[in-house]
Each structure stands twice: as structure tokens, then as C-alpha cells.
Amino acid sequence: MKIALSSLCFSLLLSFTSALLAQEERIPHAQDKPPGPALSPAEAIAKMTMPEGFTVELVASEPDIVNPVAMTIDERGRFWITESLEYPRRSPGPGQDRVKILEDTDADGKADKFTVFMEGLNIPSGIAVGHGGVWVVNSPDILFVQDTDGDGKADTSEVVVTGFGRDDTHELPNSLTWGPDGWLYGLNGVFNPAHVVYGPKNPNFKEGQKPWDFTCAMFRIHPKTREFQVFCEGTSNPWGIAFNDEGEAFISACVIDHLWHLTETGYYHRQGGPYPPFTWKIESIVSHKHQKAAYCGIHWYDSDAYPEQYRKQLYMGNIHGSCINADSIERFESTYKASPEPDLLSANDAWFMPVVQKTGPDGCLYILDWYDRYHCYQDANRDPAGIDRLKGRLYRLRYKDTPRAKSEDMATLSDDLLIARLISANGYHREIAQRLLTERLLSDSASRDDKPQLSDRLVLAFLLGGSLEAHGRAFGVLVGANAVSEQLMTDYLETREGVLLAQTVRAAGGLQSLSEPVSEMIFELRNDPSPQVRLQVAIAAAKQESIPTIPTLVAVLAQAGDDPLVPRIVWQNLHPLLEKQTAEFVAEVQKLRAADSGTYPKPVIDLLPRAADRILSTSKPDTLAVAELVTLLLSTEATDDPADRCLQLLTARIRSGEITGDSLVSIQKELDESLRAAMKNDSVRASTVSAMELAASLRINDGVTAATKLAEQSKDETIQLRLINALVTARNDVGLSLAESLLKSSTSTDVRRKAVQAIGRIGSSSSTNVLMRHLETLPSDVQPAAIEALTDRVDSATELLQLVRDKKIPSTLINANQAQKMLSLKSEPLADLVTKHWGVVRTERDPARVELIARMRNELRTSHGDPVAGRVVFKKLCAQCHKMYGEGAEVGPDITRNGRASFEQLLSNVFDPSLVIGSAYQGLTVVTKDGKAISGLPAEDSAQRVVLKVQGDKQEIIARADIEEVVPSKLSLMPEGIEKQLQPQELRDLFAYISLDKPPEDPNAKLLVGSRIMPGEATKADDFPALIEQLLPGYATSKAGEGGLAVISDYHGRPALRTHPVSRSEACQLTASTTLPTAASVTLRLSVASHEQGDWQLIVNVNGQTRHQSIVKRGQNGVEWKDVSIDLTDLAGQPVTIDLFNKANDWSNEFAFWNAAEIVSE
After folding, report:
1. Which of 552, 547, 545, 616 lies closest to 585, judged by CA?
2. Disulfide engineering: 645 pairs with which of 609, 801, 875, 984, CB 3.0-4.6 Å?
3. What are the φ and ψ backbone dihedral angles of 845, each rounded to 5 degrees?
4. Do residue 478 and residue 436 come from a single domain?
């Protein structure tokens, strides 16, 4: 049975979308000006610029391809393109999207045959051809689809894996790419959680299988066994995979750095969200930036169709830059460093969206262009109807008179001809030949009884000589087909070096098991001079049980030098072993001591604080082993920094309560002598202070005395704070008095805030008295820390609320999260005080926030604030959790580039912060067994502890054993009610500051789109969109009566769009088309008014049906704004056309005034 759906719905949507082409201009996210009208393909090409000798040719365009998302090229030179009209739809299930095959049948360089291969898809975001079928990403699934009868139509479909998310549809799984090892690789984004399991027909399927849970990651699937693996994790919403001549993987990413070298088992920098416990993140390979920061697609180009200077480069699609960027790479230890190269192409057209770049059959670079005014999901989600779903282009970037590709099916070539293609100067030929040869070796066909001969011919052709790349591709064929013989493996391990040897070790690590001789040979390579080889040895040792893992990892680490990658890969594979193999690790480290100098390799020494932290986090921590490591560090020259970090780590663990009881006693006993010696160090190294800090925390008498003395005498407030905290941990009374003295004497906001936090940790009646005594006189940017501390416990919270009751402090000093935290302490008297003197605490989002946003939108767009004064307000309030332009705390997201895509988004995030809470910012409240409550964002959640980022740029570490309850919050950690905490002018000043796209002192700073009402009047239809956009975004009209259209900044208290019927019989009609959100309640809300001396008929049609009709007129006391709500829940999730009519009533001053027309969902 054919897998095909009727094209009727597709055609209807094309017709429906065509009505949007005349929609008004707006400035989309991350663009500097309105994108202007769409250009025809010929006009677009005419505007493009590229290096001398290059030209751009059109291969295909609309209507033959529309909204193209992904692309691959098969062995016949055909282009397989996925199209998506559904984007940005989040719900799964059948859709209107499809896979299309493009062919150039007459070899003139233009596609002239278009075949719909598959329909009924829902944002197909990745595609690859190979191994007898087509692989399609259709989240939540990855499908294997076959055309069994050769008619170019899909006939069967198999779910290979399922469980990918659709939380964020611009971060769906994508970029299916065949790797040099024969596996199929793909990517997934940071805000799109995946819980992947095998499909029911996958041979690896098991009932109740445990899913792979991940967000941003590179994954891979074996085409024969259907095995799924997570290759590495991290980055942002990566889109595009490239493999270079050495078989290494590179990806392009958005928001964060743009270029990354990915290695198996690595964990890379994340755009957002917590890292797994003990992660040592890997960074990018760039120190430069190109235009803006949104990338889609990456390709390693190496073909003779271009001059040498354009070969062996990475070409990346820069969405916001509307160009193709280029980077060159060079080896740096076991990884790479990238350098910028001149752009390969600039479109000079904001609509240009290069989503895929591939080498084609003629060796030229082909560029797939999802041609649209909207680049970003922010615009797509805000205005899905505004997406231009009618366009798409495929271009060829040709150098001079590069010959067109001749029609050819490489699948029909003999083995020998394919082997010869492995060294073709055309990258397309090399890649296709490698895949086809791998398929032939993997084939189950009875006719393939010559597989051994094929393997032998590959060995003879390249593996006994030839170029590095030829060797790599031939060896890759054998690896992908699991056809590497034991003899060949051992020969390689003995005779190869550098890249070729690294590839061999990598291949060995990927086998199911290794023989004893091969395992021993790999173990011996732990000391190989090549960092690339040692890197792969470390990875193989972690995967193969027959290789001694910890001795191998420690040996590889010892030789890492300044390599930025090896230590992190070693750590990623080492730290899980420390759960049970601590003693073996310590023993291997101790073997490395140099006999002559008594020193240890620096990379090993630098890792020891991490190792100690990991050992202390095990279910049964070996505290004596940690003490051995600390003693080792304190007795070794030139290790002050690692020793200092190790000492501070132990202090923090004791402070958090993670080390208690017998473990605490054993550490105290084991370290007593070493700490006393370190405290007496005449040079007063950094570790000297840390030794005092730890000794005081352990209540060693000499340590308490030394810490007290230095805290009293030191002029360094940072040292004072550290020692005060140690004394607080030791429950020494002098800690409180020293903290109060520092609170009074310091002029630093940060120091005073941390002094308050130290006092709050004491949790006694005395510490409460100190905080209460100073609360009213604390600066406004320190007060929140005191409130946070006082609301942690029942007794102090009660005293605080009594101050509110007695009108000594305003209730607005306490935010909603702190009120909720007090309730979580489960004290009825305290709960009564909260209700009486603060108010009702909600656990769900307040729908009334919608009305507040409407009011604030009107007030803030028509008033004026001082951005310089606004910065002061920001520091007082917002900077407790947010950073902007480098200032503030990193608890919530940095709002320099997040949450301010438009004024509307800014309003929503500030006044309705719980409307949308990203998974990375889901707050927790932890209640401890000793009656303390802490609220914050999770930074770590392990079996041993919970780490929260809390207000004031502080991390709270809570031992798992001390936790009574962990309560996830349905509300944002950013509290509602900022409008109650600030005076009206402060609020205006704050918005004047955060509505600027640059700091106020920057002369190029400009306001966010929509943040100010710009009064104006127009009688020409061409000028209408700019007026309508200010108050009724998404609506349009082509006719208006008397006076045309006008925007008035203040019409009886609100800004307004003024319209008038065209005539007595013809209304002024405002129209918008959109897709309603899928929600339990969907409402169209209007705010309208009449002229002082007139009235008019308001008629609202939805999809041609009248849903509301009323007369709008003045009230008894003059003009009154009328708020109208129209229930559209029955149309939730559906595309709609909304018509708003300003119709004459009695033809006297029939002016309509519109303040808002918006869709609200709950």
C-alpha cells in the first residue's frame, strides 16, 4: 500500500498563504530593518556578490519547491528535498509536509522533473539516502522508508527510533549525514528534550526499554543493526554536520560560538540548562565571529571544480548574515583551531536563508534556500501566518565554465570503478563511492559472494599505500561493513602513525570486543607521541573492557600538556569509574611521581581537585583517599592552585553538610598534620588561607585561632568573608560578630550581600536579630539578600512578617517566590501571617496578567523614562538574578540577547514571567530536615546533593541526606508583581533601559521594535501597514474612509488606531490570518472606543461567520473604552481569518478607535 496522502490540503494551504504576501512590513527578530518585499529568483541572484570567477545559477525555485528544510543528493545525482508548511507546529501527528525528488533530465543544470516521494509528514527536518531506502526525520520518529516497486513513491515505512521531542520545533533532530565509519549521524537541540527508544520493528526493540534522555547532542544509527548511540552532548541548536579528510566531525551552532569539533564521549558547552554532575565542558575551536550568530548547515568542501584557495574549507550558512561564511582549520594538539576566511557568497537580501550546503555531482557547491522574511522561531511562533510558505530556491555556485554533470547512476558502477572514485578529485564522488562500497560489503544478497575479494582489492588499492584521505576512505568502507580482519588491525596498529593510527584505534574501539593481542597493542599506544592517537586510545579504553581503563586514562592524561581536549575527554570517561575504583586511581597517580624532582605531571595535578570532588560525591565516599590526594598536593612544589582548589572543595563539602559523622572525623584526623604545616607556611600562599579555612571548618583549634586572627587583621575583604564562613561552619560565635562588622564597614555591595548571606547561614535567634536590626537601613540592592535569608526559616520569617504587620517595612519587599517558600515550611501560624500581611499565594499562573500587560503596554509606550536611571533600577532589582551588558548575576538567562526580541516579548517576560518557562529555568524549592527552605534554579541534581542557583548570584549546596522535600514550581523563579515593587517612574526608567538594544551611552543604541507609539496619519494604502502594525500587528486593510488611518498617542487614556467606514454602505475592514494556539481556552480580545459625538457598529467575523456584533458608543461620562472578549475555543489549533469591521451606524462621526486586538490562550 502506497504511503501517500491527498495533495488537496497542500494546495489549499498554498492558496490560503497567498493572501499573506501583502502583509505589512515589520522588523523581525535579529534583523536591523524590515526585510522588504520578496525578490524573484532572478532578482535575488542579481543582488548576490561572490569572488571573481564565480556565478550563481538557479537549479529550482517556487512553485516547484516551497519552504525547503533539508536536502541530500543520491547516487544518481538527484536532489531529495523535504518541504514543511507545518512549521512551527508543535503537535505531532500527520501533516501536510512532504519529500520531493528533483532531477535534471537534460543536463542543462536546471531541475525539470519533480516527484513527490512521500506526503503526510510533519516538519521533516532531516533526510539521507542509503542502504536500500530513505531515512527521514519526522519527530518524534526517525523513519526508514522504501520505494519497493521503483515508481519514485514511498511504499513502506519503518520507525527506526522514536521519542524525539517537539517542545521547540526550530531545534528538532536534523542533519542526517553519513559518517566516515558508515554510521548515520544526526543532531538535536538544547530546548528540545528527547527520550529515545527503539521502534517496535527495530531488531533491538525490547518491552520496557530504558530511553536515552538528552537535549543537545550528536547521535548516530547503524544502518544494518539499527543500533542507536549518543555520540556526544552539548552546544545549542546545532544544524549541520561536516566530516573533514581526517574523518573528524564539525558542526555549526546558533547563539553560542559557531564552530565546534565534536569527539566521541565529549560534553560540550551548553547554551542553557544544567550540566550533568561533574561535567568538565569542552569549548569551541574559534576565537572569532562572523556576522551575527545564527547558523544553519555546514559543509567540508574539497573538489577540483573550484580553485585551490577555496578548497579544504568549512562553508556555513549564516541565516542572519544572509551569506555563506568560510573558516579554515588547522591541527592544534588533538583538536583544531579555526581561522576566518572571506565570505564565499553574500546575498544582500534578508530573505536569504541558506539551510543546507552540499557538493553536487559536478563538484560545485549547491545551496538550499528556505526563502522567508522570518529567520527565527520567535517570529514564527508569534506570527505563524506571517511565514511565507510559498518560496524556496536551490542554487549552484559555479566557477567559470565548470562542466555540467553528466547523467550517471553510480550504483551501476563496478567495484573497481567505485574503488577508483574513492580518490576522485570530486568530493561528491568520494562520499557516494564510500557509501555504495560499504553497502555492497554489508549486503545480504546471495550474489555478493565476492565480498572477500572486494575487501582484498580495497587493501591492495589504498591501504598498503596512497594518500591519507584515500587510506581513510578505503579503511572507512571496511570499518562501516565490520570487515576489518584481525590481521589487518594488528598490521595497522604496528605500522601506521598519526592520523592513520588514530583512525585504526577509533575503529578498534567501536568493535563489539577485542582480542587480547589487539587490546595489548592499544594499551601500549597510551604513550604514543601523537595526541590524536592518545585521544582515541583513551576513548577506546573506556569502551573496551579488555583494555585496563584507569591506567590508560591516567597515562594519557599525564602526557596531555596544554592540549585543550584530551584532559576533558579523559575526565568524562574517568569520573564514573571513581564511584568504585578510587583506590586504583590514587595508586596510578602516585606512580607518576618523578624520582628526581618529586613532582607530578601538571595535567594530572590540575585534575586532582575534580577527582577529589567526584570521590566525595560517591555513595560511599573514600574520604581517606581524598585526604591522601590533599596531602600529596600540599607536599608537592608548584601545585599551590590545585592544592588551594582541593582545600576549598573540602571546606565547601563540610559547609553544605555532605561530609559529616565518621567521614568528618577521619578527614580531620588524616589532615591534621598537613593542615597545621600548611598554615605555618611562611610564604602565605593561597593554599595557606585555604588551609586555615578548612582547619577552622573542621574545628581544629589551631585553625580556629588562625582564622579568627587573620579575619580580624586582614584588609582583604574576600579573605575575611572566606574565614568568616569557615567560623560560621564551625559554629563559632565570633563568626557572627565578624560578619556584622564587615556588613557595617564595607562599602562594596557584593561584600555586604555576602556578609548578609553568611549571617543567614547561622540560622539562630542571634543572627536573625542582626539581620532585623539592619534590614531597614540596608541599601536597596542588599536588602533582597536579607529578605531571602529571613524567609528561609519559620522563626525569622515570622519576625519579618511582624515588621510588615507593624508597617515598618512594605510588603512589596517580599516577592512571590519568597512568600511561596514561607508556605513550604508548613507552619500554620506563619501561613496565616503570609495571607494576612502579604496576600494570597498562587501556585498557578495568574490569567489576569493579560490585562496587566495590556495596561502596561499602553502606559509604557506613551510615557518617557530615563535609561540611565533605569540602569540603577535594574541593578537594584533585576541584577540579583540577570546579567545585562556584562552587569549582574547569572542565575536566570543573560537578557542582553535573550527575552527581548521585541517589545511584546519583553512585556510578557517582565509582567507574565510564568507564561512560558523553559525546561532549563524550572525552579525548585528544597525543604531541609532542619526546617529551612531554599528556592532556586537547579544547577546540579545528583544522588549525593542538590545545587541551586539562588537570588544574589549565589549557589546553595544541599546534601541529599539533609533534604526533606523537593518541590518543583509551576511558576517562574522570576516573581510576578514587579509593578508593585517599583514606583511608576522607576518602572518607566527601567523599561527605557531594557528597551534599548545597546547600553544607553552607546550612540548607536536604538529602541526595540514597538516600544514607542509613533503618531501619524495616512490616506494612501501603501502607508497603512506602518500605522496598523503599532497597535494591531498582523492586521491589514486597503481602504479607509474619512481621514484615512491615524495613530493617536493618547485617546482618552490609551493609544489608538483611528479608522472610518469607506462609505455609508461599505465598512472599513481590518483582516488578519493566523493559526490559533492549541489550548483549553482561546479568546479574541478587543479594546475599542467611539468618537466623542458618534457611534459605530463593531462586527467580528471569523472564517466568514459572524461571532460578534455590537454598537460602540460613548458612555454616560463621555468616551469610554469597551473591552470585548470573543470565545474562539472551538477553533483552537486551526487556521483562521479574522475580519474586524468598522461599519456605519447613523453616519455621524463613525470613527472607530482601536487599542488592541489580540489572541489570548490559557
Report:
1. 552
2. 609
3. -60, 145
4. yes
Q: How many residues does the chain have?
A: 1162
Residue 244 above 60 pLDDT? Answer: yes
Q: What is the DSSP letter of 78?
A: P
Nearest to 1025 by CA among 27, 10, 92, 8: 27
- Neighbour tally for 79: CB within 10 Å: 26
Residue 176 has what pLDDT?
99
b (16+ CB within 10 A) / e for 414-424: ebeebbebbbb
For 60, which DSSP code?
Answer: E
**pLDDT score of 482 more than 50:** yes
CA 766, distance to chain mean position in Å, is: 45
CA distance 1147 to 1143: 9
Q: Are strands 1105-1113 and 1045-1051 parallel, antiparallel or unpaired?
A: unpaired
Q: Is residue 573 part of a domain?
A: no
Same domain flag for 390 and 418: no
479 with 334, same domain: the answer is: no
Last residue of a domain, one of 432, 454, 483: 483
Q: Is residue 602 part of a domain?
A: no
DSSP-assigned letters across all residues of 151-214: SSS--EEEEEEE----SSTTS-SEEEEE-TTSPEEEEE-TTS-EEEEE-TTSTT--TTPPPEEE
Tell me: the pLDDT tens digits for 1009-1060?
Answer: 678 888 999 999 989 988 998 889 889 999 999 999 999 999 998 999 999 9
Sign (positive/negative) of CA torsion 159, 160, 166, 169?
A: negative
Q: Do residue 439 and residue 356 come from a single domain?
A: no
Rounded Cα distance between 280 and 274, Å, is 12
Distance CA 704, CA 695 (A): 7
Q: Which amino acid is at 441?
A: L
Strands in 945-950's sheet, in edge-to-edge order, are 954-959, 945-950, 933-941, 924-928, 963-968
Number of domains in the chain: 4
Whether residue 522 contacts residue 505, with contact meaning beta carbons closer than 8 Å, is answered with: yes
Taking only the tens place, the pLDDT of each residue in 379-428 is: 655 566 666 778 999 999 999 999 999 899 999 999 999 999 999 999 99
Of the three residues 361, 380, 399, the one that is the final residue of a domain is 399
Report the distance separating Cα 365 and Cα 432, nearest Å.
16
What residue numbers bound the domain in which 1048 lies?
1016-1161
Q: Are strands 141-146 and 295-301 parallel, antiparallel or unpaired?
A: unpaired
| Residue, of 1095 and 897, whose pLDDT is higher | 1095
**Euclidean distance between CA atoms 354 and 367, whole angstroms:** 6
* Residue 90 domain flag: yes
Using CB atoms within 10 A of its CB, is residue 843 exposed (0-12), middle (13-18) or buried (19+)?
A: exposed
Q: Where are the beta strands (DSSP E) in 930-980?
A: 933-941, 945-950, 954-959, 963-968
pTM of this prediction? 0.76
Residue 772 belongs to some domain of the structure:
no
**pLDDT tens track for 681-735:** 665 567 889 999 999 999 998 899 999 999 999 999 999 999 999 999 999 999 9
Shared domain for 248 and 332, answered yes or no, is yes
Which CATH number goes with the domain that contains 113?
2.120.10.30
